[in-house]
Amino acid sequence: MTDTPDSPQPLQFGWEEWVSLPDLGVPAIKAKVDTGARTSALHAFDIETFGPASRPKVRFTVHPIPGRDDLIIPCSAPIIDRRDVTSSNGERELRYVIASKLSVGGDTWPIEITLTNRSSMTSRMLLGRQALKDHISIVATDRFLQPELSYDVYHTARVRTAQPKRALRIAVLSREDNYSTRRIVEEGEARGHTVEVIDTTRCYMAINALAPEVHYDGKRLPRYDAVIPRIGASITAYGAAVIRQFETIGTFCVNPSAGIISSRDKLYAHQLMARAQVGMPNTAFAASPKDTGNLMGLVGTAPLIVKLLESTQGKGVVLAETKKAAESVIDAFRGLKANFLVQDFVKEAAGEDIRCLVVGGKVVASMKRTGAEGDFRSNLHRGGTAKTIRITKAERDTAIRAARVFDLNMAGVDLLRSDSGPKVLEVNSSPGFEGIEGASGKNITGALYEMIETRVRPVPVRRRKSGTD
């Protein structure tokens, strides 16, 4: 007579058990076992759909601890179904259905979950019969027959490192269908996110203390997890106002409105960098100097750079090779009532500069740009060429410090190599990706999303409770 293998011991559940939902980043929650219900249910708030109709997703927040609505976990998941569910009190409700793994006592298996508001229920989660495996037996008179967990997990650092990546809803503020915008959309969708391009100038705002909103083409914009600003120089003021509105709502903006405005104002930008002791060419400014010679003397001897404060992509930047030429250019700009800077020309740079792409406080790529034949400006838009380059530690540190001056999470920092160390020419809050991705061969857009995903990771959030007098 041969022995038969032992059949698996039945897993015993009481009428209430501690469970975790690792796919949703919920490490501990109490669930009521109800064999009368077909599908499991989770207590969810702020339920909102997003994504394309062919692959819809839903995002929601979970309050895992009863009576602690100040602690929330943001979640998202693909929608697998939508069902009519009749609750125990006879009310019918059309609910979104998602899939998630359920973990109990070291055992894990997939289940389906409906999302609903269970604020009137004692348990934050209900386990229906579909979630109960064949070898589970229910002991209706007992509770917590499986290993007990603790809500203390929400107060430890471990929960932050174990959070899953979730699908995000991201807005790109851009008026142009260019390489950078297309790459942001392409990379985001490849990572499972929903990315929507919004024309900044078609946004308008409802400004009030209780419910600030951003509207677009006659409709209120939905809640975004993050906003990526691609604000053109011609609409800096309005674009910054739109970003401020998103900041007021509480949306994570890759670059803040204040940083965009200050980096675009060349005079203010140089003043901020000087205060932070960031290296830059000698610079002078005056609204209407009586003595052009004194203004030039503050910078040095010719050749000099005369630069309009509103210049972009190399436009409005003039090299004056002699003192007389510099005087003529300055007088011409003054005659046009234009604001301008006068800067020392770094001869040893020889018409080359270095663009460092800083993302999340790190230089993720760099390239050397060389001006077209006979042009001291190295802008790629003006026919310059680019190739990858290895930068020094001093150049890396300078680029990071320059981006930090403006609190920019994404910045293109332009440097010159001088005999006295790296000099910052400009900090760009909306750098293009085409040239530097092509020159470096690196996935710059991917680095941008890694930073965004880290910043909006669904860690438990504690809302500040209003105080009483």
UniProtKB/TrEMBL annotation:
<keyword id="KW-0479">Metal-binding</keyword>
<dbReference type="GO" id="GO:0005737">
    <property type="term" value="C:cytoplasm"/>
</dbReference>
<dbReference type="GO" id="GO:0006412">
    <property type="term" value="P:translation"/>
</dbReference>
<dbReference type="Pfam" id="PF18030">
    <property type="entry name" value="Rimk_N"/>
</dbReference>
<dbReference type="InterPro" id="IPR008503">
    <property type="entry name" value="Asp_endopeptidase"/>
</dbReference>
<protein>
    <recommendedName>
        <fullName>Probable alpha-L-glutamate ligase</fullName>
    </recommendedName>
</protein>
<feature type="domain" description="ATP-grasp">
    <location>
        <begin position="270"/>
        <end position="453"/>
    </location>
</feature>
<keyword id="KW-0547">Nucleotide-binding</keyword>
<keyword id="KW-0067">ATP-binding</keyword>
<dbReference type="InterPro" id="IPR011761">
    <property type="entry name" value="ATP-grasp"/>
</dbReference>
<dbReference type="Pfam" id="PF05618">
    <property type="entry name" value="Zn_protease"/>
</dbReference>
<keyword id="KW-0689">Ribosomal protein</keyword>
<dbReference type="GO" id="GO:0005524">
    <property type="term" value="F:ATP binding"/>
</dbReference>
<dbReference type="InterPro" id="IPR013651">
    <property type="entry name" value="ATP-grasp_RimK-type"/>
</dbReference>
<dbReference type="GO" id="GO:0009432">
    <property type="term" value="P:SOS response"/>
</dbReference>
<keyword id="KW-0464">Manganese</keyword>
<keyword id="KW-0436">Ligase</keyword>
<dbReference type="GO" id="GO:0005840">
    <property type="term" value="C:ribosome"/>
</dbReference>
<keyword id="KW-0648">Protein biosynthesis</keyword>
<dbReference type="InterPro" id="IPR004666">
    <property type="entry name" value="Rp_bS6_RimK/Lys_biosynth_LsyX"/>
</dbReference>
<dbReference type="InterPro" id="IPR013815">
    <property type="entry name" value="ATP_grasp_subdomain_1"/>
</dbReference>
<keyword id="KW-0687">Ribonucleoprotein</keyword>
<dbReference type="GO" id="GO:0018169">
    <property type="term" value="F:ribosomal S6-glutamic acid ligase activity"/>
</dbReference>
<dbReference type="Pfam" id="PF08443">
    <property type="entry name" value="RimK"/>
</dbReference>
<dbReference type="InterPro" id="IPR041107">
    <property type="entry name" value="Rimk_N"/>
</dbReference>
<keyword id="KW-0460">Magnesium</keyword>
<dbReference type="InterPro" id="IPR021109">
    <property type="entry name" value="Peptidase_aspartic_dom_sf"/>
</dbReference>
<comment type="similarity">
    <text>In the C-terminal section; belongs to the RimK family.</text>
</comment>
<dbReference type="GO" id="GO:0046872">
    <property type="term" value="F:metal ion binding"/>
</dbReference>
